[in-house]
């Protein structure tokens, strides 16, 4: 069962709906959160804030400098995270490496427009339902996310595309694709076997 949004998290961290950009990731180097400093400054200049959710344990990860325009709130339960995603202006995911990239898809499923790193796993997972930036270029990250942040028609388009994409990501849909693939393989095998018999 999906968790119910716990909107008390907004009051707890003094956040106003639609006036923050959200990112999710631990303070690990490959998550690339340090590249969001320029974005944080750009949002601060517009009276908004970048909210970062994730593990900040100093015993596991390197210390992080707190930059203007960025609010680090550590870990949240599923209900709190859902509330933040549903009320964010958009979602940014600057990771340099991912095996799959679940957080952007979770944001998409809740209708939150996504901007993500232009890396192969995220291109494969998010397709045309995200805007992309160079994760090694903080200025490009800031430019692309602020462009999405400030363009309401683009936000609506990207958010809608994300919902449509994630509707297809179900176990039933995956099983059906596998059955279709196996059927094609079986038919190809029969054709080859028939050809071998004739020769």
What descriptive keywords fit this protein?
single chain; 199 residues; alpha/beta; Rossmann fold; 2 domains; six-stranded parallel sheet; 8 helices; 48% helix; globular
Summarize the structure in words.
- The protein contains eight helices and six strands; from the N terminus they run αβαββαβαβαβααα.
- The protein is an alpha/beta fold.
- It has two domains: 161 residues, 3-Layer(aba) Sandwich (Rossmann fold); 29 residues.
- It is globular.
- The termini are far apart.
- About 8% of the residues have low confidence.
> Mean pLDDT, nearest integer?
84
Structural class: alpha/beta
Overall 3D shape: globular
Beta-strand percent range: 5-15%
Task: Evaluate the radius of gyration.
Answer: 20 Å
- CATH A-level architecture of the largest domain: 3-Layer(aba) Sandwich
Q: Which SSEs are present, and which pair or pack?
A:
Layout: H1 8-12, E1 20-24, H2 37-45, E2 49-53, E3 70-74, H3 78-87, E4 90-93, H4 102-109, E5 114-117, H5 120-126, E6 131-133, H6 138-150, H7 152-167, H8 171-198
Parallel strand pairs: 1-2, 1-4, 2-3, 4-5, 5-6
Helix pairs in contact: 2-6, 4-7
């Amino acid at each position: 069962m999906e968790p119910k949004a716990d909107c008390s998290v907004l009051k707890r961290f003094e956040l106003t709906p639609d006036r923050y950009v959200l990112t999710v990731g631990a303070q690990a180097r490959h998550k690339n959160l340090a590249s969001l400093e320029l974005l944080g400054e750009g949002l601060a200049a517009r009276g908004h804030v970048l909210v970062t959710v994730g593990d900040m344990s100093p015993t596991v990860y390197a210390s992080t400098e707190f930059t203007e325009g960025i609010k680090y709130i550590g870990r949240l339960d599923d209900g709190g995270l859902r509330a933040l995603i549903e009320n964010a202006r958009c979602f940014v995911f600057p990771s340099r490496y991912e095996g799959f990239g679940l957080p952007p898809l979770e944001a998409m499923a809740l209708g939150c427009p996504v901007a993500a790193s232009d890396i192969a796993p995220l291109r494969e997972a998010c397709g045309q339902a995200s805007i992309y930036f160079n994760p090694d270029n903080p200025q490009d990250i800031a430019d692309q996310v602020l462009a999405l942040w400030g363009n309401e028609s683009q936000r609506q388009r990207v958010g809608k595309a994300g919902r449509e994409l994630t509707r297809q990501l179900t176990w039933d849909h995956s099983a059906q694709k596998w059955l279709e693939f196996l059927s094609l393989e079986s038919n190809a095998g029969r054709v080859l076997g028939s050809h071998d018999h004739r020769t």
